[in-house]
Amino acid sequence: MQYQKRTVTCGDLGAADVGKNVVLNGWVHRKRNHGGISFVNLRDRYGITQVVIDADSPPELQSAATELKPEYCVAVQGIVRARPDTMVNPDMATGALEVQAEDITILSRCVPLPFQIEDKTNANEDLRLTYRYLDLRSFSMQKKIRLRHETAFAVREYLVGQGFYEIETPTFIRSTPEGARDYLVPSRLYPGKFYALPQSPQLYKQLLMVSGFDKYFQLARCYRDEDARGDRQPEFTQIDIEMSFVRRDDILTMVEGLMGYVFKKVLNVELPAQFVRIPYDEAMERFGSDKPDLRFGMEMQDFSPYVADCGFQAFKDALAAGGRVKAIVVSGKADYSRKQIEELESQAKIYKAKGMAWMKVNAQGALEGGVSKYFPDAALVTRGLGAKPGDLILIVADAKAKIANTALGGVRSKLGKELGLLDPAVFKFAWIVDFPLFEFNEDENRWEAAHHMFTMPQEQYLDTLESDPGSVKGDLYDLVMNGYEIASGSIRIHDSELQQRIFRIVGMTDDEAQKKFGFLLEAFKYGPPPHGGIAPGFDRLVMLMAGETSIKEVIAFPKNTFAMSPMDDCPNEVDEKQLKEIHIKIVPKEEPKA
User: Is 90 exceeded by the pLDDT of residue 155?
Assistant: First the structure.
C-alpha cells in the first residue's frame, strides 16, 4: 500500500512549524462537525494534533472526512496554521496549532469499539485485557509503559556505571520446589523428565559469584505457580543483583544509590541518601507489619502500663499469657459511629484477633464509650498515649504477640486508606533488618526458612542454630516503600557444611539435599567468595512510581486475577499429537464427592 509517510509526529508541532507542509500518521481520536467544517483530533503515542477540513475543501477531501470514525488509522497531509486566539486549547501540547488538511488517506478501518479509548475507562478488567491492544492505545497506559521503559533503562544505566555485568541465567532449570509451586516443562527428548521455569535465579547468581563475576545483575523473568493478586502475577520481573566480598551495609548502600538515581532520573524526585533502618521486631511492635507504610504516623503503642489497675480481665489474661495489649490513637475521630468501629473490628478479626476494644476522649478530656468504665483514671491513659479531646482509642489484646500486633496493624492500614493518608506522590522508604531466620510451621510441625534456605545466620547465633532455631536472626534485609515490600535480600551462605546444617534444621536429609542442590554444594568446594544480594521487584516498583495499586497497570500483557489471558485464551488445550510427542497424558480432574 502506497501512502504518505509521516514527516512529524502528532505531539511535535510548535510555533516554528506554522506555514509548513507536513504529513501526520495516526488514529482518529475524536471527530466533530461545526457548520460544514470538520475537526479531527489525530493521535499517536507522542500526542494529539487537531486536523481541520474546511468547508470549501475539495469534494473528495470532504468525502474522506465524512467517512472517518474513531480509531480509523489515517495519513493526513496539510499546512500547519495557528489557531484563532479564542480556540487555543491550553490542555494540549499542540493546542495553539492545527493542520489544514489537503489530503486524507484511510490506511485501515476500525469496527465499533468494545469500549472508548480514554485515559479513565469504565471498562471492567477482563474486557480491558481481552482487548489489551486497544487498552494500550490510551495515553494513560502509554505513559505507564513509557515509565516502565525509562525505569528499566535507568536501572541498567546505574548498575553498569557501578561496574556490574548484566548476565542472563537459564529459563529452563531443574525443579527444586520450595515455597511456591514450580511451573514444569516436559522434555520431549527425555520422557518422564521435566524442566522448571525459575522462581528466581537464586542458585545461578550464587554460582556466578563462585565463577568470579563479583558484580552481577539482570532484569530477570521469574515464574511462580501461585494465586494471583493485585501486586503479584504468575510471571513477573525482578532486578536480580548479587555481589561478592560484601557485607550487608555495602548492599544497602548500593540499593539506596540505585533508587535515588532511578527516582531522580525518571520522576525528578529526590530521595534521602540513606533510608531509615528498622529491626523486624521493632517494626512489628510499632506498625504490626514487616512492610510498614511510613507516609503517616498513628503508630501502635504498648497499652500494658494501664492494665494492672483496670477491671478488664481480657487485657490481664493476654498479658499473663505472655501476649500483648496494643493501642492506636486515631486523631479527631471520636465521632466515629459504632458501625464504623465494628468495620475496623472486622479488619482486626481477619488477622485472628478475637475482638477490638475502644474508647473515646470527649471534649473535657474524659474517656467515654466502649471499655472506658474500666479505666477510671482517664488522665493517666490519655497522657500516656498522647490522646487529646476528640480522639478515638482502639485496643487489641491477645495471648500471642504476633496476633495482637498484626491485627492492630491491619486496622492501622485500613485507617490510612479511609482517612486519605496515603499520598501516591510521596515515597517513604525503609529497610527492615534482623529478620528471624526460621519460622515454625505448626501444620507440619517443623521449622522452615522464613525467606529461603541460602541465607547466612548472623554470626552470634552459629553455635545455637540447632538448639534454638526460633531465636536465630538471619543476615536478611527487606526494602519497603509505602506499605509494600519492593526488595528482599540477604548475605548468602558460602560454606557447604553450614549450608548442610540449615538443610537439616528444615527437615531435609543429606540425601535430599544432595539430590536437589548437589551442584551448589559441589561448587562450594572450590573456593566460593563471601557474597550477598538482593532482588527488587521491578513490576511492583514501577506500579508504585506510577501511583497504581495493581501491577497489571504497568505490564503490557498481564494475566487476569485467575492467572489467565482472556485476549489469547491462555492457558489453552493442545492437540493429542503434541501431548504424545512429550509423553504426556491428560488425567480427568476428579470431581469432589457429594
Answer: yes
Report the distance separating Cα 116 and Cα 542, nearest Å.
26
Residues 6+ apart with CB under 8 A from 333: 390, 391, 392, 419
> 367: exposed, middle or buried (C-beta count within 10 Å: 0-12, 13-18, 19+)?
buried
Summarize pLDDT for 220-245 with one digit per residue, the tens: 999 999 876 656 789 999 999 999 99
Grid coordinates given for 530 = 563471601
Helix (H) or strand (E) holding 105: strand 97-108
Please provide the DSSP assignment of 342-402 as one string. Answer: HHHHHHHHHTT-S--EEEEE-TTS-EESTTGGG---HHHHHHHHT--TT-EEEEEEESSHH
Tell me the CA distances in angstroms from 347 to 114, 257, 395, one per residue in order: 38, 37, 13
Q: Look up residue 433 and give its three cell numbers.
A: 533488618
Read out DSSP for 28-48?
EEEEEEETTEEEEEEEETTEE
Mean pLDDT of the chain: 94
Are 42 and 51 in contact by the 8 Å Cβ rule? The answer is: yes
Q: Which three cell numbers stand for residue 110?
A: 476500525
Indicate the angle between helix axes 338-350 and 401-418, nearest 10 degrees: 130
Identify the pLDDT of residue 311: 83
d(CA 5, CA 61): 18
CB contact at 8 A, 583 and 192: yes
pLDDT category at 539 given cuts 50, 70, 90 is: very high
Number of C-beta neighbours around residue 75 at 10 A: 18
DSSP single-letter state for residue 304: G
Nearest to 223 by CA among 237, 212, 213: 237
Q: Distance between CA atoms of 507 and 354, rounded to whole angstroms?
A: 33
Buried b (16+ CB within 10 A) or exposed e, 109-133: eeeeeebebeeebebeeebbbbbbe
Hey, what's the cell of 425? 506522590
pTM beyond 0.70 = yes
pLDDT tens across 328-340, in order?
A: 999 999 999 999 9
Helix axis angle for 280-287 and 401-418, nearest 10°, is 60
Cα distances (angstroms) measured from residue 590 to each of 294, 587, 593 = 48, 9, 9
Residue 179 pLDDT > 70: no
Phi first, then psi, for residue 109 (nearest 5°) are -105, 165
pLDDT of 451:
85
- Strand partners of residue 243: 215, 532
Q: Which three cell numbers stand for residue 152?
A: 528499566
Domains, the chain: 15-108 (2.40.50.140), 120-282+537-594 (3.30.930.10), 296-421 (3.30.1360.30)
Q: Determine contact, residues 534/479, Cβ cutoff 8 Å.
A: yes
pLDDT confidence of residue 177? 63
Name the band, by pLDDT with cuts 50, 70 and 90, for residue 184. Answer: very high
Q: What stretch of H or E contains 240? A: strand 235-244
Count of CA atoms in the C-beta half-sphere (13 A) of 448: 10
431 forms beta bridges with 277, 479
